[in-house]
Amino acid sequence: MRLLVREHTDEAIELDVKGVPLAFLNTIRRYALAKVPTYAIDEVMIVVNTSSMFDEVLAHRLALIPLKTEDVIDKIRGIDPELCEKCASSTPEGVDPSICGECFVHMVLEVEATTNDITVYSSDIRSDDPYVVPAYANIPIVMLAPGQRIAIEMKARIGRGLEHAKWNPATIAVTKYVANIKVDEKLCNLCGKCIEVCPRGTLKIENGKLNVVDVYSCTLCRQCVKACPAKAIDVGSMEDEHIIRIESAGSLKPETIVREAVYILLNELSEFEKFIEGIGKGAIQ
């Protein structure tokens, strides 16, 4: 296996992975979206709302604000989000209340416009946990005219994207093919028609040869193949090399999303292995 980091920023990570089946990478991609836990606002109690926005719309906007989870990911790793879902309204029977307390973070949003129109931003939300706060301070929530006021109490809890998209740690999680471009130099007459039709500028004539400038830019549209009168170029995809790209919503770092997705997958495979071993030993029928 070979890993090559093509891009790594605070918002995104892109890896070139060779020697790993596409199905495995696609599983990591799906787990990044559906199973990596984060915090999101789940319960909203609107005490006062004299703005022009309906309570339901306001609650929906608040729920979709990404909350930082990076600094508490180690703490919540051992908490079952499905159990937190049951704790949403009250502590279920037989469950330690302290466990439910770990699932939730209390937040308050209270703003009033006095003399001028104002915009309420995500930075106006106050959280009981200094580590679980809006990922971005400049997300607009609602505009208030003079005399208008909102007072809202909220509870953020741990959840997975499998339950609702507001818990998705990633906005984009994709796998892509890597192009395999072959040029027959004996047939190529350097007419340049393939370069003219290529929408991504992947090909270029240099030193009397047709060269691939950036194989990663190729979208496998095969327009160059169709345009080449000499049939000197062929475009396919690498069988054992693929790209996986994860873009974060802001709650977790992109590399953390990948790491946690792999961690959850390995745990599930370990449980599956134990189950199969139990069948072999006759413990499970």
TrEMBL record:
Q: Which UniProt keywords apply?
A: 3Fe-4S, Cytoplasm, DNA-directed RNA polymerase, Iron, Iron-sulfur, Metal-binding, Nucleotidyltransferase, Transcription, Transferase
**An example Gene Ontology molecular-function term:** DNA binding
InterPro entries from the UniProt entry = 4Fe4S_Fe-S-bd, 4Fe4S_Fe_S_CS, DNA-dir_RNA_pol_30-40kDasu_CS, DNA-dir_RNA_pol_insert, DNA-dir_RNA_pol_RpoA/D/Rpb3, RBP11-like, RNAP_Rpo3/Rpb3/RPAC1, RNApol_insert_sf
Q: Which cofactor does it need?
A: [3Fe-4S] cluster
Transmembrane regions: none
Q: Name one Pfam family in it.
A: Fer4
- The 4Fe-4S ferredoxin-type domain covers 179-208, 209-238
Q: Which HAMAP family match?
A: RNApol_arch_Rpo3
Give the family this protein belongs to, as stated in its UniProt record. Belongs to the archaeal Rpo3/eukaryotic RPB3 RNA polymerase subunit family.
Q: What does this protein do?
A: DNA-dependent RNA polymerase (RNAP) catalyzes the transcription of DNA into RNA using the four ribonucleoside triphosphates as substrates.
State the protein's name. Answer: DNA-directed RNA polymerase subunit Rpo3
Taxonomic placement: Archaea, Thermoproteota, Thermoprotei, Desulfurococcales, Desulfurococcaceae
The gene that this protein is the product of is rpo3
